[in-house]
Structure formats: C-alpha cells, structure tokens
Amino acid sequence: MRLTNARDLGLFVRERRRRLGMTQTELSGLAGVSRRWLSDLEAGKPTAEIGLVFRVVHALALTLEARPAEAEPGAIDLDDLLRDLRTSRG
Amino acid sequence: MRLTNARDLGLFVRERRRRLGMTQTELSGLAGVSRRWLSDLEAGKPTAEIGLVFRVVHALALTLEARPAEAEPGAIDLDDLLRDLRTSRG
DNA sequence: CGTGCATGTGCACGTACGCGCACAGAGGCT
DNA sequence: AGCCTCTGTGCGCGTACGTGCACATGCACG
C-alpha cells in the first residue's frame, strides 16, 4: 500500500488492525500508545508523532519502505533531472 | 530503504536530499517547513509530525510504502497466526 | 586571511500535542 | 428488551511541539 498522506496512513492502519483481528484497545496496549491517540491516528490526524507511528507499525508487524518515485514512462530519471536542475542554475 | 524508526527516517531524508543536491534551506522552503525543524528531523527527532514528514517526502520525490513484514523461512503466515490467536482465545 | 554558505543549536513564544477519564452511539448476542 | 463490546469524542492537564531569530562552527574559495 502506498502512503501519501496522514489519511492514507490512518486508513491503512485501521485495515491492517482489523485484518489481524485486533481492537483499538488491544493494539494501543501492544504499541504503548493511548486508545485516544490511536483513534485519532486512524482518523487521519496529521499531527501524530512519527515515533508513536513507528511503534504502531511495528505492533502491526508492518514494514515501512521509502524509495524514489517511479520514473515516468518517458524514461527520464527523476533523480538526475532534479540534481541537474540544482547544479546548473543553483 | 527500510525505515524502522525516526533515526532511520532522518538519515534517509538527509541522504536523499544530498543526492538531489539540495540544502536544508532549499528543501525546507520547498516542503513548507522550517529549516530548524528539518534539521531536527534529519537528526532523528521522534516527535516530528507525520504531516510535515509527508510534505518532505513529497518534496524529495519519494514514495512511502507499507507492507506486512516478511514471512519467516519457516513459512508461517504471520497474518493468519495473529488473527487465529485473536479469534481463538479472544 | 577574509568572505560566504551550510548546518547545528539556544531561546522565547503561542499553540496543540498526547494522555486519562467519562460518556454516547452503534452493533451483536442471548 | 437488556447487556456487553467497540469506537468516537469532549474536557482538562502538563508538556513539548514547530517557528523565527541569532549566533557559532566548519568548510570551500579566492
């Protein structure tokens, strides 16, 4: 699942939690966060602290991966493009 | 790159930023965050808000992906295992 | 050596976090 | 109908956030 914002994250966490058959109370205890906060997170709260988010992610046996955005079909390497932009007129 | 905690995230952001030839000032302006905060983020601050993190991630042309943790070589499906645990003694 | 840029960091401010508690609404089960 | 579980949410508290500013260090260049 691709996460682009807090709402995505919240929905994904909720779905994952349900898939594992957990309640908010159980997951919050497992992750060491309050149920109150978890409820807000699942609702897409954008001000949630990433440290707590990582705790929840681990408790859900999830892996978080970051990678450069997909190259367009035009086959231009975005990394090089941006870097060139910077080094040429920066 | 696999991100497991705030420190990972910070280091990854820093490396990615440098790879694109950006300074903290440039990236912070592009992402709409303060340079102060970006500096802290790259240092691994665990209390950073995920909303701002997503802004930086986008500004770096990055994709964030979440997925179930890898299954052990023992071939037990962790999802099923956890779900069964819950439904049988919950 | 002096200048300029990149980065880290202390400070003060206004704001909102995350927490626990308590209650309300919605289902499900008997 | 009555009961129990799950979830959302208002409130109040103590705390730390994120921001902007200013300064210091480190490094490259002429």
Description:
The structure is a homodimer of 90-residue chains. Chain A contains five helices and two strands, in the order βααααβα. In chain A, helix 2 (24-31) crosses helix 3 and helix 2 (24-31) crosses helix 4 (50-59). Residues 72-90 of chain A have low confidence and may be disordered. Chain A is mainly alpha-helical and 90 residues long. Chain A has helices at residues 6-19, 24-31, 35-42, 50-59, 78-89; strands at residues 2-3, 62-68. Chain A has a domain at 6-59: 434 Repressor (Amino-terminal Domain), CATH 1.10.260.40. The interface between A and B is large, with 41 and 41 residues. Chain A binds a DNA duplex (30 and 30 nucleotides) through residues 23-25, 33-37, 39-40, 42-43, 47-49, 52.
SSE string of chain A, helix = H, strand = E? EHHHHEH
The class by helix and strand makeup of chain A works out as mainly alpha
* First-to-last CA distance of chain A: 36 Å
Low-confidence stretches of chain A: 72-90
Q: Would you report the number of β strands of chain A? A: 2
The two chains with the largest interface, and their residue counts, are:
A-B, 41 and 41 residues
What fraction of residues of chain A sit in β-strands? 5-15%
Helical residue percent band of chain A: 55-70%
Largest sheet of chain A: none
CATH architecture assignment of the domain at 6-59 in chain A: Orthogonal Bundle
Overall shape of chain A: it is globular
Total helical segments of chain A: 5
Oligomer: homodimer
- In CATH, the topology of the domain at 6-59 in chain A is named 434 Repressor (Amino-terminal Domain)
Please compute the radius of gyration of chain A using only Cα atoms: 18 Å
The CATH class of the domain at 6-59 in chain A is: Mainly Alpha
